[in-house]
Structures
1.
Amino acid sequence: MKVEEVHFNHDPTGASADALNLRVNAGGTPITAPEWVRGAAAKPAAYAAGALGSNITIKARFSGGPPNTTLKLRAVDSFVPPAQGGCLGILLAIVAAILRALFGNVLGDAKEVAVSFDGAGNSGLVTFSLVNHKLKTAGVGVRTTEWKWQYRKQGGWHSFDTTRHRTYLVVDVPAGPWTQSASGNDTQVPWTDALDKACRWAHGAKTPDQAAERITRAINSRPNQSYTPATMFGFYDYFLTSYMNALDAGASFQLNCTDCANAVVTFSNLLGCDLWEGRFFNMVTRRFLTLNGDPVVDADWVSWTWGYHEIGWLNAVGADQDIYDGCLQVDMDDDDADLVHVARLPVKMRFGSTGSEHYRYRLIQSGAGTLENIPRRRTVV
Amino acid sequence: MREELQRQYDWVAVRERLPADRGDLFLGFAPAEQEHPGWRRVALEVLPEAPGRRLRRTVWEGVDTRDIRVQADVIECTSADGALDALGDRLEYNQLAQLDPGPAGLGYVSFVHPAGAPPAAFFVRGNLCTMVASIGRRAVEILTWASRLDSNLADRPAISREGVILRPRNGGARTGTPLPVELEIPLDFQPDLVKVFAEGARLAQSEVTDRPRSFLLTPSGPGEVRVQAFALAAGKEAVSGSLVLEAD
C-alpha cells in the first residue's frame, strides 16, 4: 500500500482550515495541491496561524490497498528520539529536542480515518484532521514534518509509507502587496523564495509586532550592504527579485530608505503584518547610525540634508502613528556634538513631533519634515 | 516629478537642453565587457520600469578585486523626452535635497552625487537615461566610467557594411509630424544594439520592444533630414543603412 498524493491547500478560497495559496517567485505558475505526489519533488505549504480555525485538514489518496475493503489509516510523526545511553545520549537527546522544537514537526498527526479501497486497491481523496499540531502556537518558521502512514489491523498499527513535508508558518494571512488570489497567475501570491528569508529572519515570532520588529532588525543588519541616497530597487514597483539576488550574491550592494522601507513592509506583510510605506519631506537630520554602521565608530554617525525619507508605517501615515525604519538607527543621547551615542533601531516608534521619545524628534534637526499622506504597498516584481 | 523639484532644478531650462534639431535613438543597449577594460560584468538583469521604459541593470567588478563594484542602470525609453522624465523620477527618488550638475559633455543633461555621498552619476543621451554608481566596499571614481559609456553610445562605427534598410511609410516628411520609418535588419544578423542618428529631426520609438522594427522621425523644420542607422553585435562587423528626406 502506498501514499499517492497529499493535499495541503485543498481550498484555494480559504485559509481557516487549510494552507495558503503560494508560488515560488515572480516567474512560473502558482503552487497547487497536491503538494506531495509520489515520484515528484515535494512542494511546500504555508499556514497563517491567526486565520486557522479549530479543524485543520489535509487530503490524501492511496493505492495498493486491499481490494474492496475499508481500513483505518492515520499518519504519525516519524521522529524517534536518539537511543544512546550515558551523558552523550542525554546531550544528543537535548540537542535533538531543541532542533525538533525549532524546526521539526508542526503539523502534528493526521487523525485516523476509515478509507475505502475499490476493486483495484485505490482510494478516493480522503480528508484527515490534523491533531496535536502546533500551527497556532509554534510561531513563524520553516519546518519539516516526516509522517509515518499507518493502517490498523488486528488491534495494532502497522506502518506502510513515509512522506516528508516542508511547511512555512506565518502570523496571519499576508497583507498587501501580497494577495490570496484563487485564480489566474497572480504574481502577488506569496513567494516561497521570499518566505525562505522572512521565516528565517522572524523565526519564532508569534505576533505581528514581533514579526515586524524582527524583519526590521534583519533588513537593517544584512551583511555587505551600505547606504546610498539613490533608490536602487525600484520606486514604481519593488524589485524584490533583484534585492534577494543581491542578498544571495554575497557581494557588496547599496540601499536607500525607499529600498529599506520596501523590504521592511514587503517581508513583514508576507508574515501577516499590516504595514505601509510612506514618505516625509525636507529635513536636515540629527546624526544617526548609518546602515551597517558600527555604533562605537563616531564616523558612522552621520547627518544628511534630505529631500525626503521613506519608512514603514503601522496602519497609516500620520504623526500619531508608529513607524518602522530599517535604514538607520537614531541616537537617543541628547548631545549630538559629543562622542556618546545610544543607538536605537526605530521599531514601533511613535512618529510624533516634539517628544524626546518620538522618532521625529530623534531624526530631524531642522526642516519641515512634512508628511506625504500617500501610503503605498509596491507591487513586487 | 513634484512641482517643488521641477522649480528647484529649473526643469524647463533642463528640458531645453535636449537637442531640437537632431536625434539619437538606442535600441537594446546594455554595456558590453569589451568596452570596459579592467572590469568584469557579473550580472545582467532586465527589470520593469514605468510603462514605455525598460531597465537593463549590469553590475561590474574589478578583474583583480571584488572590493570595487559598479552598477550601471540603463533605462531605455521611447524618446529623449521620456528619458528626461526617467531622469526626473530618479531625482525625485534620490534622498538628497540637491544633486550637483554633471560635467559638460556627459550626455545632454547630467547630475552627480555631491562630495561626501557614494559616487553616482545620472545622464540622458538620446532615449536613454543612465545611472552609474560605485557600490563596492571601496569607492571608485565613476565619471570616467560614465564618460566612457556615453562615448561608446555617441560613437558611430568607423567601418560597417551596408545592409540596414530604412523605409519611410506612406506620406511625406512634414515639420513637426512624426513619420514612421521601417527598420529592416538582415535576418541573419542578431544585433546587440541598434543606433539611429538623425540630423534635422528628432527620433522616437512607439514602444520599447525586443526586436525593433520601426521608429518615428519628426522633422525639426523644412529642409533636408539625414538618418544613419547601425546594427551592432559583439565580434562582428557593424551593418549600416542611411536615408535622406526632404521635409516640408
Note: Chain B has a mean pLDDT of 93.
2.
Amino acid sequence: MAEGLGFIEFTTGDVLSAAAANGYLASQTVMVFASAAARTSAITTPYEGMMSYLKDTNSVEYYSGSAWVAVGGASGGMTLLSTTTLSGTSTNISVAGGYNYLKIFASGVTANAGGSEMVLRCNNTSSSSAYTGSAYVANASAFILSTTEYQLNAFGGSVDTETENAYEIDIFNYDQSTYVKAIRANGYYKQVYQGNTRRNTFNSGGGFYSTSAVTSVAFTLVGGNTFTAGQVKIYGVK
Amino acid sequence: MSKPMVRIHNVETDEIIDREMNDAEFAQYQADLKTKADETAQLDEAANAKAALLERLGITAEEAALLLG
C-alpha cells in the first residue's frame, strides 16, 4: 500500500499514474474492512495517517505510526481493544500500544475447583521483584502483595465455582519505557473457604517493576486449576 | 502425561490458540504449585496457632474480636 501524499489538484486532461492514484486517492480514503484481522491481512505496512472503518466494531480508526487508534479516542475516551474468554490454566492477551493507560474488566470468572489464586502477569512475567504492591481486603486485613506477579485475590483467597465476581484493573503508562507501570486493581469475589462463604472486597495498588512496555497481559490461576468461565475486556484510554 | 492448557489471544489478528504448555511454561506452572503449597502451609500453621491460642484462653474467635475491636 502506498503512503498518503497529501493534497493535489488535478487539472483537466491529467492522466493519473498508478502511483498518483494510490498515493493521492486510495491511501487517503476511509478504507472499509470486516474486522481488524481483515485489515491486518490487507494492509501489511500501514502508514501514519491512514484511516479505516471496521464493520464488526463500527469504529473509525487512524494509524498513529505505531498502532491503529480510534478517532474520538481523545483524552478520556475509552476504546474497546479486545474481548477474551478465559480458558486453560492461563490466558495471555496481547495489547496494542498508543493509549495513556489500559482499563481491564474481568467478570464471571470461575475455575473447575477452588484453591487457586488468580494473578495478573504483564508480558507473562513471573520473577522475583518484578512486581510491587499492597492491598486491603475487607473482612480481612491489609497485606503486602506477592512480588513475583500481581495478585488479584488475597492470600487464602481463590477463584472457585462461584460466578459472583468482578475485577477492574488499571495499568498506567503501559506502553512507555519507564521504570514502573503503576497498577491499580479493585475487585469483588465470592468464595467458599473451609466451608464458609466469604464475600471479599479487594483494593490494591502497586506496579510492574520493568522498563519494558507492556505488550500482553496474562490471567493465570496459581494452584493447579483451570478456568471454566470468565470474560476479560481490555480498553485503551486516552 | 499431557501438560496443562493455555490460551493465547493475539488481538491484532484476533487469533485464539489453545495449546499445551511448553517446557518453560510448565516449569513456571510447577514453581507456582510449590509456591501455592508453601502459602497454604503457612496459612494452615497460622490457623492452627490461632485455634490453639483461643483454646488456651478459653474464648471464641468472636469474643477475641470484641476484645480487639
Note: The interface with chain A takes residues 4-16, 18, 21, 25, 28-29, 31-33, 35-36, 39-40, 43 of chain B (CB under 8 Å).
3.
Amino acid sequence: MTSEKKKQLIDLSYLEATFGNNPLAISKVLDSFLSNTPQLMDNLFSNAKNSNWEEVKMIAHKMKSSFKMIGALQIANALEEIEHLSLSKTNEPKVFLSIKEVHALGKKVCSEVEEKLND
Amino acid sequence: MKKHLIKILMVDDDDIFSLLVKEAVKSEENIEFLSVSTANEFFDKLLIFNPDIAVIDYNLPDKNGLEVLSELKKSNETIIPIVLSGQIEVKVVLEAYKNGAQRYIMKNENVTIELMQNIKEINKNIRIRRELEAIRDNVIQQNHQYKNIIGESAAIKNVFRLMQKVENINMPILITGKNGTGKELIAQALHYNSNRKRKPFIAINIAAIPEDLIESELFGHEKGAFTGANGKRIGKFEEANKGTLFLDEIGEMNLGLQTKLLRVLQEKSLTRLGGNKNIELTCRVITATNKNLWEEVQEGRFREDLYFRLQGFIIKVPTLSERENDIILLAKYFVEAFCKKQQIPIKEISAAAIKDMMNYSWPGNVRELKSMMERAVLINESLRIQPEDLMFLEQRVY
C-alpha cells in the first residue's frame, strides 16, 4: 500500500484548500484539465519533433501552471525546464528527452485525474 | 438599496487557471466575471462588457500582456488593470507598473488567494469612488442651470446671461461684489454648468490663510523645501487638475505672491516650492474680490499687469438692495430651508415684516438676510414672522 501511495503523481490539496467544501468546483477544474491536457501534450510532442521550439516554449509555459494546481510537481518542474531549454538550439536533444518523459508521465497523470473524477 | 456590481474581465489562455479564478470569484457577492483567451477577444469584449477590473496574463498567444496593458490604458483610464505572470524578473515587474498596472501578481501557489485579496481591496476602492461620484452628481444637479442661485430680478438675470457666455470659455474670470453677495456661489455655478463639472472645484480664501503659508498652499512644496516640510505636498493649483480653482479675496494677496501668480497665469505652468520641475496648469482660474481692484492698483497695492490678466471677463454681482425684487423670494427660501432642517412647520412672513425688510439697506447682503431669517425662525414663537423677530443692524447691541 505504501508503494502505491508513492506512485501518486497528483496532490489535490491546493484545490481543496482553494475551494473548501466544494467538490463540484474541483470536479470542474479536473474536467477542464482532462479536456485540454492530452491535446496539449500531443502538440508539445509534435512541435518538438518538428523543431518548432517557440511553440514548444509557449505550450510548456501554458501547461506548467495547470500541473502545479493539481500538485503534479514533477511534471510541472520538467515543463519549466523545457520552457527554459527551448530557448537554445544546442539543447535540442536534452529538451526532446524531457518532452518524451513528460509525455509519458502526462498520460499517467491524466489517468489519476480520471480516477479522482470517478470516485 | 441595490449594491453595485463589480465587473472583472480576465484574459488568460490557460483555461484551467481561468476556471479556478472563476470559481474563486463566485464566493464574492456582486461580482460579474468573464474570461477570454486572447488579446483580440479581450478588446472585442471590452466595450460591450465594460469591466471595472481587467486581469491580464503576461503571456498571451497573440500579444504580450504589457502591450495589452498599454493599449488598455490609452483607451480607458478608469479600468483597473492587474497583471498576472510567472515572470519574476524585476525589469518585467517595473515595466508592468510603468505601463499602468495597479497590481502585479506572481502565478505561484498563492495566486488565487492573492488575486482575491487584491480584488476585494480594489472592490472597496471602487465602491468609495462610486459614492463620491454620486455625491458629485448630486452637487452638479443642484447647480444645474444655476438652481443654486435664487433670484428673479433683472439684476440677477443679467448675471446669469453673463455666466452663460463664459461657462465653457477657458479664460480667467473675475467676480466682483460686496461681502455676502454670493460670489462663491457664482463661481460654483460656473464650474458645475461647464464641461469641467466632473473635475474638482477647489476654493481658497486668500485672506484666511497666514501669509507665510499661502505660497505653499497654492503651489505645493517638495520635501525639505522649508523647515517642517517633511514630505512632498501638492498645492491647490494641482489639486484643481482640469477643474476650477477659485481664489476668493484676491485683493488680499501680497505683492510678492501676485508676481508668482502672474507668472503662472502667463506661462500656464508652475513649480512647487523647493522644486524645479515645471508642472502644467490645467485648471481654470476664477478670482473674486470685494475691493475696487483698480483703486488698489492706483494705490500700488495690486499689480497692474496681474489686474489686466485676471479680468479676462468680469462679472459684477449686485448687492441685495440692487436686486430688491429678490429680497422676499430669498427670505422665504431661507425660512423654508431652515424650518425643514429644524424639522418644524414652515413659517410665513407677515406683511409688516416684509415692509421692514424692503426698507432696509442690507449692508451684509444675502448672507445677512440668511442669518436674519434663521434667527427670526428660532426667536418667533408663532407660525408667522413679525417685525419684532427681525434684528436690523442699528438694533444690535455690541
Note: The two ends of chain A are 18 Å apart (CA to CA).
